[in-house]
Amino acid sequence: MDIIEKDVEALTCALSLPKNLVIRHATLEDVKDMAKVTCESWQLAFRQFLPKEVLSKGTPAFFEQIWLSILTQPEKHNAILICDGRKIAACGATGGYRASHNPVSRKICKQNAGELYRGYVQPSYQGRGLGQALLKARLLKLYEQGYQKAYTWIYAKNNRARLFYEKHGAVNLDSALGLTMNKYPFEEVCYGLEVNRVFDFH
Question: pTM higher than 0.85, yes or no?
Answer without folding.
Answer: yes
